[in-house]
Specification:
With 299 residues, this protein is α+β, with helices and mostly antiparallel strands. 32% of the residues lie in helices and 23% in strands.
């Protein structure tokens, strides 16, 4: 398949073609007017896109006169759209939450969808800007940090190396001058930031809990029937093992395992016949001892 021609396209042209492919994948057809409306281009302008696409991607599109729309041809294989259900639904979630038009080209038609509201927090833009600068330049950052283990905020000097989203909020992985160790700091709890030119006392390469990983194996809860375990496995992308069990295996940075367990309600292991309050009703850790080893610490 000839794909070299894609490199000659502008970003705007690629977005339009991605939109066309997404509509063909998920709706089965696409009309010129739909593309013109989304991207604010004229029909004549768009005709060149369709013509070039068909020239390099023969039998990929068919024109349905009755519907006045392009449909998938016998050799249709997307070049720019992935066709992944997981990617589509992830982008749809982003759109339903933020209404950002940036994801529309990959979505094609935006179907009716809704997401449960998540707290967005309030991160000081000046703190984030200086945090980004410290990350780029490898310098320190003096902040006032409000830990929930202390009544009052305390000045801290941090040497950040990575921003992390734990599924609910943003934090930064940084060397903490106060405790002389690498820790996680919630961005929304930082204020009054200023750069510190001092070199980090310890290099980010020495953050062992960041660079080392732990394999976390998740299985369907033991109390489920065979059929129920099968549907849970499909829902969570578990693979079937040689002994017929289902397993969701993830290699996770050790400093992030606690967040993984918390997010999926596996802090108690989940291996018992009857789920404890707050425990995930359908999932369990294959090794429940992991829950004890990765309990949240201070800060």
């Amino acid at each position: 398949m000839d794909v070299a021609w894609l490199d000659t396209l502008s970003f705007a042209q690629k977005q339009r073609l991605q939109f066309i492919e997404a509509r063909l994948i998920w709706d089965g057809f696409v009309r010129r007017g739909q593309v013109c409306e989304v991207f604010d281009v004229t029909p004549n302008h768009l005709s060149r896109d369709f013509r070039r696409y068909r020239q390099h991607h023969a039998h990929s599109l068919e024109y349905d006169v009755e519907r006045k729309a392009y449909t998938r041809g016998r050799d249709f294989k997307p070049l720019l759209a992935s066709g992944s259900a997981e990617e589509y639904l992830s982008l749809l979630q982003v759109y339903s939450t933020s209404k950002s038009t940036a994801v529309v080209p990959a979505l094609g038609h935006v179907t009716s969808a809704e997401s449960i509201t998540h707290p967005t927090g309030s991160i000081d833009p000046d703190v984030l800007r200086l945090m980004m600068q410290a990350l780029r330049e490898g310098c320190g950052l003096a902040v006032t940090y409000q830990s929930l283990n202390e009544a009052d905020p305390v000045p801290r000097t941090l040497w950040p190396h990575t921003l992390v989203h734990n599924g609910d909020r943003w934090h930064v992985r940084a060397f903490d001058g106060r405790h002389q160790q690498f820790r996680d700091f919630v961005l929304a709890r930082c204020s009054h930031a200023s750069l510190d030119a001092a070199t980090a006392p310890v290099a980010a390469a020495d953050d062992k809990m960041w660079h080392e990983t732990e394999t976390v194996d998740v299985i369907p809860a033991v109390r489920l029937s065979t059929s129920q375990k099968s549907v849970v496995a499909r829902e969570f992308g578990m693979k079937s093992t040689d002994n017929g069990e289902f397993l969701w295996s993830s290699a996770i940075r050790k400093c992030l395992v606690s967040y993984f367990l918390y997010r999926h309600r596996l802090e108690r292991g989940g291996a018992s016949e009857k789920p404890a309050p707050g425990q995930h009703p359908y999932l369990a850790l294959k090794d429940p001892e992991l829950a004890n080893r990765y309990r949240f610490g201070s800060d």
